[in-house]
């Protein structure tokens, strides 16, 4: 019978979009498990869709033993928009997601029929939430962002105007996840993510000025189109 390794609480400090370092509570348990969070904005350069904010929580088995049991995934991911002072308003700026097995984005050995999860050494389980930028009280925070013109790209809104990309928006993210009933809850500290967004549009404008095509921005990073 495979040995079940008891998980421990690990705190991970993350700045901006990703985390690559783990800060364990004690030196002697540093090699057991790591947790990290990544968050980014999913859209395309020429999209008439608003796009969504994807957040991933990754749990990795750092032991030399296999962890195996019936998975009972619970937990939460909480994302809070931090607006500039002039945009502070009396509405809920937080979206809270409840995790379940439906939020498993990747697991090498997860049987969804039996709920049995096996994590060999170095295996990871990745959970995700996909946020449409509406908060717990259905406030659509995209309506409160500050926007800047990208004068190198003209699009249809439906008439020809510069593509509009938001200033960098700040979010606080914290998460916890429990993957087995008999094992401990894994936590992350509250972390900061900063991200630009793009207003949806109806494609590039047909211009008589023979403007060059709009340049693509770095994937998940509209800020790169305006040099932020």
CATH class: Mainly Beta
Q: What is the N-to-C order of secondary-structure elements (H for helix, E for strand)?
A: EEEEEEEEEEEEEEE
- How many separate structural domains? 1
CATH fold field value: Immunoglobulin-like
Shape: elongated
Mean pLDDT: 76
The N- to C-terminal Cα distance equals 54 Å
Proportion of helical residues: under 10%
Strand content: 35-45%
What structural category arises from helix and sheet content? mainly beta
Radius of gyration: 21 Å
Second CATH tier, the architecture = Sandwich
Q: How can the largest sheet be summarized?
A: 7 strands, antiparallel
Looking at this structure, what is the CATH superfamily?
A: ApaG domain
Number of strands: 15
**Unreliable sequence segments:** 4-31
Structural features, described:
This protein is mainly β. It has a single domain, classed as Sandwich (Immunoglobulin-like). Helices cover 0% and strands 43% of the residues. The strands form 4 sheets. Strands 5, 6, 8, 9, 13, 14 and 15 form a 7-stranded antiparallel sheet that branches. The protein has a 4-stranded antiparallel sheet with strand order 3-4-10-7, with no helix packed on it. It is elongated, with a radius of gyration of 21 Å.
Task: Supply database-style keywords.
Immunoglobulin-like; mainly beta; 228 residues; seven-stranded antiparallel β-sheet
Quick structural summary:
The protein has 228 residues and is mainly beta.
